[in-house]
Design a protein that fits this description.
100 residues, mainly alpha, Non-ribosomal Peptide Synthetase Peptidyl Carrier Protein, Chain A, 3 helices, disordered N terminus
Amino acid sequence: MPAETHSTHDPVSADEVFGMVRSHLSEILEIDDARITLDSKFADDLDADSLALIELVEALEEELGERTVGFSVDDEDLGDLATVRDAVDYVVLRLGGAAA
């Protein structure tokens, strides 16, 4: 039997990705998820450092890897993600959907 090379799950929407990012960030940063909006800046608004972003990426790769075979975030792209919206749009585009 061949290895699974594609996902059979429904596409992930921008709202679902935002929910995942919000949930993981609130846990990583130990803050109320109500503080996290699409326009929140990781460093300025949420006091998230590079380690927190790496933890977020790892959590997203694990969660989305279950739904989309081979999903990953390129390390060199992390510097381009300044806001939660940037992260959501990046993930949605990597999954082949339409940005928020």
